[in-house]
Amino acid sequence: MSIISRIASRSFLQLKRPGMVPRVASTVPHFQINQSRSYSSRPVDNPNAAQRRPKVSIKTIQSLYRKKEAISMMTAQDYPSGLVVDQSGIDMCLVGDSLAMVSLGFDSTNPLTVEDMLHHCRAVARGAKAPFIVADLPYGSYEASPDDAVRVSLRFMKEGNCDAVKLEGGVEMAETIHRITRIGIPVLAHIGLTPQRQSALGGFRVQGKTAKQASALLKDAFAVQEAGAFGVVLEAIPAEIAGYITQQLKIPTIGIGAGVHCSGQVLVQNDALGLFDKFVPKFTKQYCNLNQIITSALREYHEDVKTGRFPAPQNTYPIDPAQLEKFYAMERERTGIHHSQQEHEEEDRTVHATML
């Protein structure tokens, strides 16, 4: 029995007093009582909820790569965004530090702390049950030493319920990647435009546009592969360079602004769904504009409240008319006694005044 049912039953027993005869007033509204449900919410008609798929593992990712089947990856930052990634059949879910900008309103990804990211990872993991979940290691948590990187990676696996971690950097991070993977934690590398280092790069700028830069990117890619990364994100790189790097490697490449020849693609969910209000990256395909849709819905709600259209009868909870009349009778009895006492007190004061 639900809490509401128990309260209703207890209230009914308390109201059922000897000598109290229910009297139904004509003003009492009559509601149709639904006896089949005792809970205070209605079921959600979601056909995707019943569709369960096997958990995507690192073996699944490697199998997709061998079969040359494109790998889909999308970011998420909380339970609802993780849930829709799960229900849409996407292979990998990235809890990206981009959430600092698109969800928390910062101007860059760098302010995020380890505790912030762990909080978001746990929320995403509760929604994204099937996708392979990768967590960005936040800026400042892993660069100082491989030991720091190992410790924080263990936290993301143990406390964040993630399947892998992602870190930015190429040749200079090879030892760190090696140390992390050596203890059994999968690492997704990230080269090209590395947002955590955007200050050193002069902003969010395309990388690999010169022969020298492209050659350096190829060295970075080889270095992270040899260090043990299971894949590498290529961000904001000319499509030809990204395609060539993909051909040279033996691990998947995940492109974001790197053309169609990568092994897979990733986008920031808020960008793809039109929820970020500041800018839309050139490499983003906006599949809808949820900002407009949600704003329109909230305006309609605002007007419904102002005009009294909400809540409607179907949005309210009914009460048995007999119980409602008993409540009114109790109130009439209570307020009648109260008024009588007030009248006696007033008479006493009048008598006392005349005696003076």
UniProtKB/TrEMBL annotation:
CDD domains registered for this protein in UniProt: KPHMT-like
EC class: transferase
GO cellular component: mitochondrion
UniProt-listed Enzyme Commission number(s): 2.1.2.11
One Pfam entry name: Pantoate_transf
Gene Ontology molecular function: 3-methyl-2-oxobutanoate hydroxymethyltransferase activity; magnesium ion binding
UniProt keyword Transferase present: yes
Region named Disordered: 35-54, 336-356
Catalysed reactions, as listed in the record: (6R)-5,10-methylene-5,6,7,8-tetrahydrofolate + 3-methyl-2-oxobutanoate + H2O = 2-dehydropantoate + (6S)-5,6,7,8-tetrahydrofolate
GO biological-process terms attached to the record: pantothenate biosynthetic process
Keyword Cell membrane: no
PANTHER family, per the entry: 3-METHYL-2-OXOBUTANOATE HYDROXYMETHYLTRANSFERASE
Family the entry assigns: Belongs to the PanB family.
Record's function text: Catalyzes the reversible reaction in which hydroxymethyl group from 5,10-methylenetetrahydrofolate is transferred onto alpha-ketoisovalerate to form ketopantoate.
Protein name (record): 3-methyl-2-oxobutanoate hydroxymethyltransferase
Organism: Mucor lusitanicus CBS 277.49
